[in-house]
Amino acid sequence: MKLKSRHTDVFELVFGACALTSVVVLFLIIIFTLKNAVPAFYGRLLTFENLWAAEYNRFGLYTLVASTAMVSVGSLAISTPTGVLSAVFIAKFTSSYLRDVFKTVVEFLGMIPSVIYGFIGYMFLAPTIAKLFGLNFGQNALSASIVLAVMVVPTIVSLSTEVIMSVPREYEEAAMALGARGWQTLLHVTIPTAMAGIVSSVMLAFGRALGETIAVLMVAGCPTRLSGPVWNFLQPVYPMTAAIAMGMGEAEVGGVHYHALFAVAAILLAFVFVVNFAADVLRRRAPRRIVV
Amino acid sequence: MKFKMETIDLNVWYGRKHVLKDVCFKVPEKKVTAVIGPSGCGKSTLLRCLNRMIEVVNDAKVKGKVLLDGRNIYDSNVDAVEVRKKVGMVFQKPNPLPKSIFENVAFGLKIRGIRGAELVRRVEEALRDAGLWRDVKDRLTESAFKLSVGQQQRLCIARTIAVRPEVILMDEPCSALDPITSAKIEELIKKLSDKYTIVVVTHNMQQARRISDYTAFLYMGRLIEWNSTEELFEQPQKELTKSYLKGRFG
Amino acid sequence: MRGRFIDRILMAVCGLSFTLLALALVGLLYILSPGLKTITPSFLFSSIHEGGVLEPIVGTVYLFAGGAAIVAPIGTFTAVYMVEYAPKSLLTRLVDKTINNLAGVPSIIFGLFGFTFFCKFMGLGVSLLSGWLTMACMMLPIMVRSVEEVLRTVPESVREASLSLGATKWQTVRHVILPAVMPGILTGIVLSMARISGETAAILFTACFYTMRGLPRTVLDPVLTLTYYLFIHVVAEPGELDMPSLFGLALTLFMVTVTLCSAAFALRAYFRRRWRI
């Protein structure tokens, strides 16, 4: 006889129903996004051309997806080394009191509203970049990458710090007892052990970069097509999220543009789920403390 | 002799590990029964079966009967919560609730619907019986965590007796305490046996001898011998018991 | 020796990286600082028609207060279910994965969902109420994880103590566990509010309307928030605010978020210290 407490709790049902709410919400999000996207997929509205112009019913995914890729990769290129090295700094080179201070500083950076980042990017970064490179406007992939990098770096720093601090002391002590220097222990023992967690944090940051809307909208430029090749970061770009936000302001509900936007949203959602899934898988293989 | 509680062919598994094997344990009414044996022999498990706290443990499986006043507490129409209202427990490590001293003792009474002047009276009575009243009467609203370990254990005993259970189970109640405090708790146990049926698990043979009327010896999940304390210690029947009493194994 | 030199270089490089971050924060503050001159009580309390920011502030408060009111009980009860009632059940594992996924959903998609589900399908239109419901969906993961975290700090011995006295699971939760973790729950609420107060994309077409310039009179009216107000001024330039006021607006929003965050962090630190008994 397997044992279970016999006392039937009506509260268990109530709480279980609350728990079910989140599942229902996610389910509804997926269903409703797909429901409105399906007409676009069936009607072959989306193409792979380099032109996204709703008024001409041209919905070329290349512009949007390439822009998103450029900006996300660009932001990771900046934020990953900065973030990981900062995490190493906080985890290894600071006293425990200062560590709490620095971690809070980084957390603050992560809570700043995206519209403020966009505002600052628009007011200062873009003009600066324009002046630096002799352009007319500073809204381009470079500005967007920089702004995004600052926005996602807290994710990398806080998670990587946790992971690095969770590497068992015994491993490091073993290396040191064998005569390894600080940097050797770090490079050959600590970082490899923490690697799964660090990569996971980078993937989470990638997910966040993919999904950021407001800040990129204000500094990316939003042209109808990409004028140059993908490695030219000084051209204005039009990431998927910006296209959706801009488009929803104008699209007629139930119209062609409307469905196209939902189609883009569905694709974005798929990307984000895949990235987060990968991050999750990696995180399980990382050393962990109780508090995330 | 009347048995307040009895186990009949009690078997317990933790996952695949067979922890208690065909145990037929008897608990005489209004007496102190000690359960002794080497560590890992299943003493705590047996205790937890008596108030259905075994159900809180993951992966635990129970077969057999446990009778309280002749009724099987594992019957499908018996509520575990009701069982625990009659069979209280004091744990090895004092575990006061994160509340004030007063609230700790009052909690059990409040969930039984006792309020007001009656509540205050019963709390005081319980604290007096546990020998804690003088120490805490001026600081009832302070956090229970401010008490010393010995006082916390008394507090746990106070909250258990406040609700006037029929049986009190004690799982090595003195193992976290120093010898002087232990002695005081032992005194308390002897005093309580006038009113309550008590079962004490202990790894300390001398303690068992001092405080109990009956003793059961458990070894590797089996009940090897059960007798009045005097007889078990003076004239043990089984070889295993003899060896254990002589200190041949811990 | 070469080894020690490399050690030093490493520390310098890491320190430099961190300094870059700190500089970014300082730079941010520096850029926003011109707004300090504009932030006077009259700026904060006068209507936007007089160049102030009263309606956006009030609108922001309406939004996060309502969202918090909806999500606090649902999030708390979800966490209670997961930790206290059914830690091993299928539903709990499903909810755990769901919460992780929900946390990663981009805010624009919440916006689209809010629009098509709450505004259109449920017929609530672009309104404060739609905003509340959309925000509640966004806040759910933060709330659940915060409460989950504090529930897990409660040692098993406390639950055993309560159960052994004959309390039911509900009595244990209501009278022992929840009171003990209340500061933690509060932290979760304030943290979610901080997150929401900075949100723009999700309310862009669920709660805000370009021509809306005032306080919502009912919950079915659209609302004006600090974030939206700043956004349209940069993107569309409706021309109601001059440059100094714009900075004042940005700084106000920044301060609202910082205040809420500080409150949340302070609560969290207090709570963590309390349980180190």
Task: Describe the overall structure.
The complex is a heterotrimer of chains A (292), B (250) and C (277). By secondary structure, chain A is an all-alpha fold. Chain A has a single domain, classed as Orthogonal Bundle (MetI-like fold), CATH 1.10.3720. Chain A is built from 10 helices and 3 strands; from the N terminus they run αβββααααααααα. A 3-stranded mixed sheet of chain A has the order 1-3-2. The radius of gyration of chain A is 23 Å and the shape is globular. Chain A starts with 9 loop residues before the first helix and ends in an 8-residue tail after the last helix. Chain B has one domain: Rossmann fold (3-Layer(aba) Sandwich), CATH 3.40.50.300. In chain B, the strands form 2 sheets. Chain B has a 6-stranded mixed sheet, with helices on both faces. In chain B, strands 1, 2, 3, 5 and 6 form a 5-stranded antiparallel sheet that branches. In chain B, a hairpin with a 2-residue loop joins β1 (3-14) and β2. Chain C has 2 domains: 1-32; 38-274, MetI-like fold (Orthogonal Bundle), CATH 1.10.3720.10. Chain C starts with a helix and ends with a helix. The model of chain C has no long low-confidence stretch (mean pLDDT 88). Chain C is mainly alpha-helical and 277 residues long. The relative contact order of chain C is 0.15. Chain C has helices at residues 2-32, 35-38, 41-45, 54-85, 90-104, 107-121, 128-153, 156-164, 169-197, 226-235, 243-274. Chain C contains 11 helices and no strands. Chains in contact: A-B, A-C, B-C. The interface between A and C is large, with 88 and 86 residues.
